Each structure stands twice: as C-alpha cells, then as structure tokens.
Amino acid sequence: MVKFSKKLEYSLIALRHISISEDKITRVRDISEKYNIPHDLLAKIMQKLKKECILESVQGINGGYRLLKKLSEIPLFDLYSFVESSTSIVECMHDDASDCYVSDNCTIKDPLAKMQDEFENILKTKMVSDFV
Amino acid sequence: MVKFSKKLEYSLIALRHISISEDKITRVRDISEKYNIPHDLLAKIMQKLKKECILESVQGINGGYRLLKKLSEIPLFDLYSFVESSTSIVECMHDDASDCYVSDNCTIKDPLAKMQDEFENILKTKMVSDFV
DNA sequence: TAAAATACGACTGTATTAGTCCTGTTTTAT
DNA sequence: ATAAAACAGGACTAATACAGTCGTATTTTA
C-alpha cells in the first residue's frame, strides 16, 4: 500500500500547532490532548524532530518544545525521511538490495526508479507550511 | 511507509512478459518459474487482471492468459487501483473515514488531499508500457 | 479418463506500524 | 532539599497489512 504513516500526520499536526500557538514553549501534553494523539508516541516523534534540528527542547517543570525553523523552510520531504523507516517505494530499491531474486530477468527497476524520483520531487517541492 | 506492493511489481513483470512473448497463450507457471514468483500468488493476480479486462484466460490443459489491451493503453493507475487494497495515502481519506478522531481540530486534510491528487496524476500519466 | 491448466476461498506466516510501559534525567516552584 | 512535571529513551505488546500456502473445484484436451 502507498500510505503515509501516522508519524507523519502527527508531525504535521504538532508542527502546525506549535507554529500558531502564542506560547513560546509548547508541551507535548497540550498537543496530545487537543488532537487525541497518544502522548508517548508523540513525545518520541518530537524527540526525533529535535535531533533533526527542527525543534529545540527545554527540560524541567516548565519545559516543552520550540520551533527552530520556519515551516516554510522545511520541505515535506525532510519530515518524511526523518519519520518514515524507508523512503523507497519498492523493495528492490533499498540500499542493501543486492540480493534481488528476480535479478537478471527484472526489467522494471529503472522505470520504477524514475517514478520514485518524481514522487520525491513532489515531496521536496511542498513545504510543511503548505499543510497548515 | 510509502511503498508499492509485491502485487504491483509482479503485475508489471507478468504483463511485460506476456507482451513480449511470441506465444499466443502464456501459462502462469512459465512466468512464476522464470522470475521466481510464487505460483499461487501470481495466479490470483492474473485472475484479478482478467476480471478487470486486462487479460483473458483459457482454461484446460493448454490454457493460459492472453492480453486484451496494449500496454500503452493501460495507465499504471489502473493496475495500481486494481491490485492495491487502498489508494488513499492517509487513513482519514478512506471512504468510510467519518470517524476521524482528530475531527474538528484537524487542518491538514485538505492539503494532504491535494498531495494525493498529484500523486495519482503521476500514476495516471504513466502507462504500463513505460515500465518495459 | 488422467493430466494440466485456471478459479478461488480459507488459512498461515511475517513484517511494519502503532501504541504502551517503565525507568531515567532535568529543572523549577515550593 | 525535594516533590512535581516536563523531556528522554529503550523494551515490549498489539494491531494491521502484506505475502505466501493449501486444499478443492472446474475446465479442457491429449
């Protein structure tokens, strides 16, 4: 199936919320409660976005997250590749797919690779701000 | 994850094989053996493509499949929607998704719907013959 | 009439996603 | 000081979808 993960959905919802909120710092709990997103799951996504320098965090009792970038400067592709476990639309395009069992007889690889490029280009063109 | 299913890969391989083979009728077994595709799985895919009027079948000891259309007349999107269980890139775009838990607070639906359109347009532009 | 092909529903195995649980670390209000 | 409330993160479980298998029926022809 070709479907985005919940993580990507949650990321978009969370980033949007932070960007339009007046508060300087937003707590994970506020977002998870408002949108019915499991707290622990969202917390991990936020941690990931911190590692990727989209958010910065403040620990402690008054802690939370703050945006490091403008949403208009974050390509959807970045979010996508940070959050999804794989970015290839077919299995044989993984980095370690030297063991394609179809191998010699497979002729669909190149055209599928082109399709993948087109798909990624869409993601690179869109900014997160387009989803707010 | 955003990935095409094996079924779509197998469909492309099979259609390509049939289209370039000299034989008037091609057996499932020939294709499954040549490309190491599980026979029963491929058989079901072929049955599906028959129902969708891409192939026609002949039963019996000398039976097999025959193309009903030119590959250049089959949009990849058709194959995609025949073979994949769902064509929506996010859950909340399913036909029966009236129970979106985010509901009122969700603002990312429209932009994602537009993304889906763009994605589908790529699939509609490509013909199966582009993958041979 | 036996063999070999399609036809097809039911079932099993496996991989990925989604979500939970538990324990730690940090910071601040009291 | 210390308790509370936030982030941090590894390990585990549950749910889902995909991939593949099995058994049986039907059809046709050598």
Please explain how this structure is put together.
- 2 copies of one chain form a homodimer.
- With 132 residues, the first copy, chain A, is mostly helical.
- Chain A has one domain: Arc Repressor Mutant, subunit A, CATH 1.10.10.10.
- In chain A, 46% of the residues lie in helices and 6% in strands.
- In chain A, a hairpin with a 5-residue loop joins β1 and β2.
- The longest helix of chain A is centred in the C-terminal third of the chain and has 17 residues.
- Chain A is elongated, with a radius of gyration of 18 Å.
Features:
homodimer, 132 residues, mainly alpha, Arc Repressor Mutant, subunit A, 46% helix, DNA-binding
CATH-derived architecture of chain A: Orthogonal Bundle
Overall shape of chain A: it is elongated
Global mean pLDDT of chain A? 85
- CATH class of chain A, please? Mainly Alpha
Largest sheet of chain A: 2 strands, antiparallel
Order of strands across the main sheet of chain A: 1-2
Secondary structural class of chain A: mainly alpha
- How far apart are the first and last residues' alpha carbons of chain A, in Å? 26 Å
CATH T-level topology of chain A: Arc Repressor Mutant, subunit A
The number of distinct β-strands of chain A equals 2
Helix count of chain A equals 5
Spell out the helices and strands of chain A N to C.
HHHEEHH
What is the percent of helical residues of chain A? 40-55%
Assembly annotation? homodimer
For the record, the count of structural domains of chain A works out to: 1
